[in-house]
Automatic annotation (TrEMBL):
It comes from Williamsia maris. Belongs to the enoyl-CoA hydratase/isomerase family. NCBIfam families: PRK07938.1. InterPro entries: ClpP/crotonase-like_dom_sf, Enoyl-CoA_hydra/iso. This is Enoyl-CoA hydratase. SUPFAM superfamilies: ClpP/crotonase. Keywords: Lipid metabolism, Lyase. Pfam families: ECH_1. Gene3D superfamilies: 2-enoyl-CoA Hydratase, Chain A, domain 1.
């Protein structure tokens, strides 16, 4: 289980997540992911970052089993802070971040993808927030960057998924390709960015963040506040325990 950074071509750095079986990340891994993304962007030799994953799917969110096996609220606090740090790192990375989504992208994965600059996905990729089925809230901030407002609310309340093809229709996913072509497609986009003057691209990234109509970091932390309330009320534990025991949402 690891998060690794490597230079795949001059100016193009990949950050790869590999946490079998479903890339549900423990708290420490979220912090590590954020640190590696920021470090890659801080290197003057880096012109663009590709965020990708090995295995069945891109990301399954936080490791709920870790959370339920820990006494008190320490694991919850660490998971929330870790997610906030990783999401912010994608947004604040000094160079553009291209995400390559394979299979499923749910929960915390939406926070990563929603803050990215370019999204490419496999033709079997699905995106969603099962948060309400886990007794939690969060990442509506980022889902709202992928789909129109009313669809976001429908997906959020129902915990349904949206397909890569639907997101391509909305313009939030740039390309949808067979799984075998995913990395090469991400590289094609990255190369188009990497050949530009990195001084200009870095300024462009900062400028685009500066004119963003939504403060994604503050709005996400607001969402997390309601999750803490649900935890203090005992609601979240009921739902997480049901998921750990049965693998299904609490009825």
């Amino acid at each position: 289980m690891s998060i690794t950074t490597s230079t795949i071509e001059p100016g193009i750095v990949t950050v790869t997540v590999d946490f079998p079986p479903v890339n549900a990340l423990p708290s420490a891994a979220w912090f590590d992911l954020g640190e590696q993304i920021l470090a890659a962007g801080a290197d003057p030799a880096t012109h663009v970052v590709i965020l990708r994953a090995e295995g069945r799917g891109f990301n399954a969110g936080v490791d709920i089993k870790e959370m339920q096996a820990t006494e008190g609220y320490g694991a919850l606090i660490d998971a929330n802070r870790g997610c906030a740090a990783a999401f912010a790192a994608v947004y604040d990375c000094a160079v553009p971040v291209v995400v390559a989504v394979n299979g499923f992208c749910v929960g915390g994965g939406i926070g990563l993808v929603g803050n990215a600059d370019v999204i490419v996905a496999t033709d079997d990729a699905v995106f969603g927030l099962p948060e309400v089925d886990r007794g939690a809230l969060g990442a509506a901030t980022h889902l709202a960057r992928l789909v129109p407002q009313h669809l976001m609310r429908t997906l959020y309340f129902t915990a349904q998924n949206v397909t890569a093809q639907q997101l391509e229709h909305f313009g939030s996913v740039y390309r949808v390709v067979p799984r075998a072509d995913l990395l090469e497609t991400a590289l094609e986009v990255a190369r188009m960015i990497a050949v530009k003057d990195t001084r200009v691209i870095r300024a462009a990234k900062e400028a685009l963040n500066g004119i963003d109509p939504v403060d994604v970091k503050t709005s996400y932390r607001l969402e997390q506040g309601y999750t803490f309330e649900l935890n203090l009320a005992g609601v979240s534990d009921e739902h997480r325990d049901a998921f750990v025991t049965t693998g299904k949402a609490k009825a």
